[in-house]
Here is the input.
Amino acid sequence: MKFYFDTNVIIAAFLTKGICFDMLVDAVLCHQGYFSEVLIKEVKKVLQKKKFSQKSIQLHLPTV
Here is the structure.
């Protein structure tokens, strides 16, 4: 199965350990996840905003 997530889902996966996180981890580990260069740039741009400062968020990254 192939997946392509939009920016909102990626950001939600980074910020919380909820359903978006679970879907992203499942897609990456068990299926084919597609991430375009445009999507990656947009995610980086959004995460650089002041409200997403490193002090205010804790990234939930999967350990493999």
